Amino acid sequence: MIRSAPTPPELLEIAVTVARDAAATAHRMRAEGVSVAATKSTVTDVVTAADRAVERQVLDALRTLRPDDAVLGEEYGAGETGPAADGGVRWIVDPIDGTVNYLYGLPYCAVSLAAEVAGEVVAGVVRNVATGEEWTATAGGGAWRAGERLRCSTETDLGQALVATGFGYAAGRRAHQARVVAELIPHVRDIRRMGAAALDLCLAAEGRVDAYYEKGLAAWDLAAGGLVAREAGLLVTGLAGRPAGPDLVIAAPPALFEPLHTRLAALDASGGP
Ligand code: IPD
Ligand code: CA
Q: Is there a single domain that holds both residue 17 and residue 123?
């Protein structure tokens, strides 16, 4: 059955309401003290009680507000809802992006919530748990923070570009990513590894970094921040015309895209384990 989905602004309104409550819970739980609840892919890939509690809260809120929608989350997967129906909505949530920062009390972690319709992200919000900064976007409606429409960097010289990136949790992957970054860093202004992919994409959306790339992102790392970045004018793709995804995400203003893409392709940035 084809069901008509709400408009992107309607989905964004729901996303913002849910993400604000979720960020408030994450903030409160951080103040109460945080510890590792479990590890996932490696011993450094941690999950805290807050990751689980915040995702549970988001799932419950969405079940109340949008009972027929599907949800994909980092901690509980898609198990509770199954796939989205034809033409239906799927929510994609990272309850805490930047969990290691959260654990260490570093103010660079966020709730990320996006709404996808027919496989396309149409609304997204990223809210910094520590600072309250909040980025939103709708497909075709622009990217916004604090009432200001966002535009990406106008830098045209890769040599002057501040480039954010991140590393995965598995040692072999990190070793490959370190080799790539070692070869890239002589050709850019500098590198930033801040520790939350969704926020990196949002900073790129307002030119607080010029570009961003990373291998190994999951759907919940990319969904909301990727829309914010695209709506601010960045090109967000993988290598050689492939879509952005686990192999590689490159988010760069049009003038920087080609030189950054060329460097990353030459360095086999999507390769390795
Ligand atoms: C991680 C962060 C980090 C990035 C990793 C992600 P998590 O997400 O976004 O910056 O480099 O690839 O897995 O584990 O904190 O939700
Ligand atoms: Ca996470």
A: yes
What is the pTM (predicted TM-score) of this model? 0.96
94 is catalytic: yes
State whether residue 72 is helix, strand or coil.
strand
Residue 30 exposure: Cα atoms within 13 Å on the Cβ side? 26
- Relative to the CA of 166, which ligand 1 atom is closest? 11
Neighbours of 105 (CB within 10 A): 11
- Listed residue (159, 166, 146, 256) closest to 217, CA to CA: 166
Rounded distance, CA 92 to CA 78, Å?
Answer: 9
Query: Known binder of ligand: residue 94?
Result: yes
Q: Look at strands 211-214 and 162-165 and give their pairing.
A: parallel
Q: State in Å: Cα 91 to ligand 2 middle.
A: 15
Which parts of the chain sit beneath pLDDT 70? 1-4, 79-80, 82-83
99 counts as catalytic: yes
The atom of ligand 1 lying closest to the CA of 198 is: 9
> Final residue of a domain: which of 115, 149, 183?
149
Cβ(221)–Cβ(212) under 8 Å? no
Look up the domain containing 145 and give its range: 8-149
User: What pLDDT is attached to residue 73?
Assistant: 95
